[in-house]
Amino acid sequence: MAKMGTSSRVAAAIVAVLGFVLSLAVVCNGGKTSSFVRKVEKTVDMPLDSDVFKVPPGYNAPQQVHITQGDQLGKAVIVSWVTVEEPGSNTVLYWSAYSKKQKSEGKVTTYKFYNYTSGYIHHTTIRNLKFNTKYYYVVGIGHTERQFWFITPPEVGPDVPYTFGLIGDLGQSFDSNKTLTHYELNPQKGQAVLFVGDLSYADTYPNHDNVRWDTWGRFTERSVAYQPWIWTAGNHEIDFAPEIDETKPFKPYTHRYHVPYKASGSTAPFWYSIKRASAYIIVLSSYSAYGKYTPQYKWLEQELPKVNRSETPWLIVLMHSPWYNSYNYHYMEGETMRVMYEPWFVKYKVDVVFAGHVHAYERSERISNVAYNIVNGICIPVKDQSAPVYITIGDGGNLEGLATNMTEPQPAYSAYREASFGHATFDIKNRTHAYYGWHRNQDGYAVTADSMWFFNRYYHPVDDSTSAQ
Ligand SMILES: *[C@@H]1O[C@H](CO)[C@@H](O)[C@H](O)[C@H]1NC(C)=O
Ligand SMILES: *[C@@H]1O[C@H](CO)[C@@H](O)[C@H](O)[C@H]1NC(C)=O
Ligand SMILES: *[C@@H]1O[C@H](CO)[C@@H](O)[C@H](O)[C@H]1NC(C)=O
Ligand SMILES: *[C@@H]1O[C@H](CO)[C@@H](O)[C@H](O)[C@H]1NC(C)=O
Ligand SMILES: *[C@@H]1O[C@H](CO)[C@@H](O)[C@H](O)[C@H]1NC(C)=O
Ligand SMILES: [Fe+2]
């Protein structure tokens, strides 16, 4: 071996050390894996006779009352409820302090699943509501009437503050009830819930016992009868069970939960968009075809250019299966969809992507992995200020328990991860700033375990990373 001069030896050493540091940075300079230690308890479903599942008294009383946005702008609301004894009325009676009582008519449907027959499921859309107004509404006209209320969102505009709650993979365990209670008692008051999929987990019961869809509807009524939950379909909504001759995917979900998909030009209820206050929310389906030429692909291709950031600065995407997930659960299940759509998310500067599926919490840095083209070897996620932050919030508390096994070391793109149940809020202040906070169920209602100030990617695209620079 040829002799090296002192200076070239030093240079070589520096290069070697630098190379080592760089490779460390690439491989394992991860964010924070929380050291929070929780009591490990089994996650069990609340028994059928639990207080939260109580059937409201009275003949043919409406139960499982729930609302969601009913158009693209927030001037309509879909009101849904179930009656058991007979179909009863489809009428919703509604009024505000400034308007007299009005009526809206809807439709009733039923379905069968194996040996289960549903109650009478009513869906009525109320239209032409005034923005930012409290409405009272009554269902069950003619038999047992029940009254609820909701507040319509402010008119769509760039500086309209609005607070979204985030819940995923809720189920109906004692932990699910804690998550919902923490959401309700969070002083950061959520005005609408962005629900990232996996609702009742009825499909984990023998023959997908659809009674557990009914109990879930009664359990969640205390929130969703008063504020809209924006629905995303998860794998537990598929209910595909050829062994009992149930081969039509999403049958219970589509009968029970309606969404305003036609208003955004979608041809199926699994992908659609809404505007609400200063946010444009795109809901995607991990369990519908998303490859090139498919209906979902064509819809999204036309949808993204329609987003007018001067009108709705905040571009939020919901899906069930996460693209970036460093837990050893559902690992890389979102990868095929990421390959299809991630270049669009970077191009159109999506602010944040919320997903569920993994029963834990994780927040990423702004990263993308769009350079790879099979042959160039550029296959590691890199920091990218045009890319969204990816948040996994599948920690609602369902009976399947927590995902605790993480890939090691924590990848560089993962900013924070923790296996605890909880919920989050996304609190839009104006066109440039939004405060995001994640709450674990073991803490007091006001405690934020992980938080971040989001800087809008269109109006304020400066680095909002929480890691040391
Ligand atoms: C449906 O079938 C299961 C078992 O085959 C049985 O336990 C259950 O009681 C049945 N339910 C109804 C509503 O008939
Ligand atoms: C669910 O939570 C509510 C509100 O905290 C409480 O009143 C109720 O007793 C809880 N039910 C169960 C079964 O844990
Ligand atoms: C985008 O929204 C702004 C604010 O509402 C409006 O002035 C502008 O005309 C819109 N642009 C397009 C292309 O529709
Ligand atoms: C965690 O997951 C990895 C990869 O699937 C597996 O090899 C390992 O045994 C798991 N660890 C535990 C404690 O379950
Ligand atoms: C937007 O909100 C942030 C956070 O509350 C605040 O610091 C900033 O001044 C606001 N911007 C404007 C233009 O009001
Ligand atoms: Fe899931």
Automatic annotation (TrEMBL):
Domain Calcineurin-like phosphoesterase: 163-361
UniProt keyword annotations, A-Z: Glycoprotein, Hydrolase, Iron, Metal-binding, Signal, Zinc
InterPro entries: Calcineurin-like_PHP, Metallo-depent_PP-like, MPP_PAP, PAPs-like, PAPs_C, PAPs_N, Purple_acid_Pase-like_N
The enzyme's E.C. designation: 3.1.3.2
One Gene Ontology term of the molecular function aspect: acid phosphatase activity
Residue span(s) of domain Purple acid phosphatase C-terminal: 387-446
Pfam families: Metallophos (PF00149), Metallophos_C (PF14008), Pur_ac_phosph_N (PF16656)
Purple acid phosphatase N-terminal domain ranges (all copies): 62-150
Enzyme class: hydrolase
Keyword Cytoplasm included in the entry's annotation: no
Essential cofactor(s): Fe cation; Zn(2+)
CC per GO annotation: plant-type cell wall
Gene3D superfamilies found in the cross-reference section: 3.60.21.10, Purple acid phosphatase-like, N-terminal
GO biological process per UniProt: cellular response to phosphate starvation
Catalytic activity: a phosphate monoester + H2O = an alcohol + phosphate
Family: Belongs to the metallophosphoesterase superfamily. Purple acid phosphatase family.
Name under which the protein is recorded: Purple acid phosphatase
Organism: Prunus persica (Peach)
